[in-house]
Request: fold
Amino acid sequence: MTLRPRSLWGRLTLLLLGVLLVAQMLSAALHFRDRGEVLKHATGYNSAQRIAGMVRVLDGLTPEQRKSVVAELDLPPLRVRLSEKPQKLPDSSHESPRAELFHQLLHLRLGRDRPITLYMPNVPSEVQGEGSHPWTLPAGAPPPMRHMMMRHRGAPISGYSFIIQIELAGGQWAGFAYHLPEELAAWPWDLLVGLLILLAAVLLVSFFAVRWLTRPLSELSEAADQLGKDIRHAPLEEKGPTEVRRAAHAFNTMQQRLARFVEERTRILAAVSHDLKTPITRMRLRADKIEDPALRGKFEHDLQEMQTLVQSSLDFMRGMALQEKTQPLDINALLDSLTEDAQDMGSNVEISGEALGPYPCKPLAIKRCLSNLLDNAVRYGGGAKVRIDDTLSLLTITIDDDGPGLPEDLVEKVFEPFFRAEPSRNTKTGGTGLGLSIARNIVRGHGGELVLKNRPLGGLEAVVSLPR
Reply:
C-alpha cells in the first residue's frame, strides 16, 4: 500500500506542496542565518565600540564622578558596575572565535596593556538565575558580581550575552554585562506566522489552479466512461488550453467514427437480413411443393434455423448499439414477470430479495438480458434461483442453476459471439451462441459487468452488477 496519490490532481498538489515547503524552509533558514549574523555583529563590534568609549570617559573621572556617571550609564541591555578589584569569572581558556574577536576589538581601542577579563557563553542555557536583577552568573561567582549580573528568575544567559571587566585608570575596575533583549533573542514568531500565511495562500491558489487545469481530464474520463454506455453521448466541449482542445477534438472524432462504424455494421446486417427474407420465403413456398414429407420437414427445419441465425445476428448488433432511451425501470416487477412466465412454462424459478427503487436503464435491453440468463439457467440447469442485492451504489442480480456448470477454460469463452459450449449445432439444445454475448453487451452498455462462476456444490452462477 502506498500513500502516493493516484490522481493527477493529487500528485500535482503534493508536488506543489513539497516544493513550497522546501522553499519556505530554505527561506526561513537563510533568514535565521542572516539574523544570527546581525545579532552577533550587534553584540560584538558595536558593543565593543560602546564599552571602549565608556572606559575612556571613566578613565578621566575621579572615583566620585565615576559613580554618578555609571548610575546614568547603567541601563539595559548593557549594565555597568564599579568595583575595587576584579571578580572571578568562569574559565574562559577555551574561548570561542567570537569571544577572541571581542577581546581583539577591545585591545585595539584600549591598548594591549589594558587588563581585561571576558566571559561569553557559547550556548544558551549555560546558567540559571534567581533574584530580581536582570543578570546572573554561574554558581560560585562572587556575590558582588552575582548581584550585578542577576537575570529574571529561571531565565538563561544566551549566546548573545557576555560579561566584561576592564581596569580603569587608578586601579578601579568597571564591570559590563550585556544581554540581548528577549524580544530580539526570542524566535521571530511574527515572521513564522507570515511565512505560514503565505504558504497557506499559495497552497489555496495552487489547489484551485491545479483543480482548474485537471478538470478537462476528468471530463474526458467521464466522457470515455459514458461512451461505453451510449455511443451517441453528447460530444465534449472543445475549450480550454490548446492541448485540451486537441484532446477533446480527437475524442469527439473517435466517437463519431465509432458511431458510424456501428451504424454501418447494423445497417449492413439489417439489409442482409431483409434481403435474405425474400429467398427464404420463396424457399418455404417451394418446400411446400415437396411431396416427400421427410424431405419437406428437413427443408423447413433448415430454413427456420437460417432465419433464426439471421434474426439473432441482427439482435446482437442492435444490442451493441443500445439505441433505446434511458428510463426508470422497476426491477422487482420485471423479475416477477419473467419468473411467472417461466413458471407458467413448467420451470422451477425462485426469487429472493428486492431492489431499493427503480433503476435508470434501457428497459427492453435489460429485460432481454435477464430473459437470456433465465432461459440458459432453465435450459441447462432445470431451474433457476434469482437473488437481488441492492445498495445505494450497486445493484446486483445473481441467477443460480443446478446444472453441470462449465469447464474453467470455457467460463469466459462462452461470451464470444456464436460460441456454444454444447458441441452440437442443434439450435434447440445449444442455441445460436449469441445469448450471453448479447447479455454482456447490454450490461456493459449500462456501465456494469456480467460474469459467470462455477458454484462450489455444482451448477453455474451468473452475476449481473449494475452501478446505480
